[in-house]
Amino acid sequence: TRERKHVAELNHFYDEVISNLGDVDCLLICGPGEARTELKKRLDTISKSGPEVTLKTADNMTEPQLVAMIRQHFSS
Q1: First and final CA of the chain: distance in angstroms?
Q2: pTM, whole model, 2 decimals?
């Protein structure tokens, strides 16, 4: 029961994030852990023709490192 409640809360959170994305063509999701893959799975279940999604592992990045990674990803 606790696990189902936790999954429902996560799905609600992911739905909130997705609803705030707007109309995007491509999306870079980065971060540690499994949240990025779970968000991608939720995005895939909600929208079959959604944005192109790329996942990257990132942990404890400074803001300049994050900006550099985003620029490198979207410039190629």
Answers
A1: 45
A2: 0.79
One-letter amino acid for residue 6 of the chain: H
Nearest Cα neighbor of 54 from 18, 26, 22 is 26
Rg (CA), the chain: 14
Residue type at 20? N
Say how many residues make up the chain.
Answer: 76
Q: Longest Cα pair distance anywhere in the chain, in angstroms?
A: 46
For 27-63, the pLDDT digits (tens) are 999 988 899 999 999 988 887 777 889 999 988 899 9
Is 76 strand, coil or helix? coil
Q: Which two tokens stand for residue 51?
A: 């944005």
CA angle in degrees (0–180, nearest 5) for 6-30-55:
95
Ordered alpha helix ranges (H), 1-76: 2-19, 35-46, 63-75
